[in-house]
Design brief:
With 276 residues, the chain is of the alpha/beta class. It contains 4 helices and 5 strands. Helix 4 links the parallel strand 4 and strand 5. The radius of gyration is 63 Å and the shape is elongated.
């Protein structure tokens, strides 16, 4: 038998070798780049550490130089003091020491005096506060009295400016007195000798009657004032009411008198009535 020859495609490994070679080259290049970057970072860190260390060294050197300058200045001052002391005689030093001791003693005395003065001032302040607290009621009463005096003075000035007529019952009499002021058709009644708000009777404004005279007489009946004395004062515009009032008083046999007053004369105070 004859041997059969192999038939079919031939396998070649050349392309696989190329791929392996290319990948190996790429990996090698990447490794070199990473190694180079790592070296550069190490150098940068080393440079930064050197810079920080250099700055710290410079700062510490400046501090040492400043301390050295202070020590040198203190040394110079000490040398000057030593030279001054060496140039001064013991007698002068003793005199200087005694003078300084006297100055210190004087300052101590002054401090003691000022301390005592402060304590005395604090004590006086406390006493003044106590006196002020105790005198507060007196001050308040004084202020009230001053206000009352001012009110009385103002009242007196007002009364002087009012040109008021003052009527009073004779001394020793026990009879009560009343003033009847006739102003037009209206009547105003106030007691003599005591402060009271005047009572006004107005015609045609109440249910007691249309006449103010009728209202007055009804009020006299209610108050039982038949034994009182009535002084009737009439203004020029109250003539008609004046005659009616006199007739009503005479009918009830009430003691009365009469007088004329001017239109500009003030007779009764709106709050105190016929008293000053």
């Amino acid at each position: 038998m004859s041997r059969r020859g192999r038939s079919g495609p031939t396998i070649s490994l050349f392309s696989f070798q190329d791929i392996i070679t290319s990948v190996t080259a790429i990996v090698t290049v990447v490794t070199l780049l990473l190694a180079l970057d790592l070296v550069q970072r190490k150098q940068s860190q080393a440079n930064d550490s050197s810079t920080v260390l250099a700055l710290e060294v410079v700062e510490r050197l400046q501090q040492v130089e400043a301390e050295l300058a202070q020590l040198q200045q203190a040394s110079d001052t000490t040398d000057d003091l030593i030279r001054d002391v060496a140039a001064t005689s013991p007698a002068e030093l003793q005199a200087d020491i005694e003078e300084r001791e006297r100055a210190i003693a004087a300052l101590e005395l002054e401090r003691t005096r000022l301390r005592q003065l402060a304590e005395s001032t604090a004590t006086r302040r406390k006493l003044l506060l106590v006196e002020q607290f105790e005198l507060e009621p007196s001050k308040q009463q004084t202020a009230k009295n001053e206000t009352l005096i001012a009110d009385l003075e103002r009242q007196r000035s007002e009364e002087q400016a009012e040109n008021r007529l003052i009527y009073a019952m004779p001394r020793g009499t026990t009879r009560t007195g009343w003033i009847i002021e006739i102003d037009g058709a209206d009547l105003v009644v106030a007691p003599m000798g005591r402060a009271a708000k005047p009572r006004r009777f107005v015609s045609g404004l109440t249910l007691l009657g249309s006449s103010a005279v009728k209202q007055l007489m009804l009020w006299i009946d209610q108050q039982n004032l038949y034994s009182s004395y009535f002084l009737v004062l009439v203004r020029p515009n109250g003539t008609r009411s004046f005659e009616e009032v006199l007739d009503a008083l005479e009918k009830k046999q009430i003691t009365h008198g009469s007088d004329l007053i001017g239109d500009d004369q003030v007779l009764l105070h709106p709050e105190r009535g016929a008293v000053p």
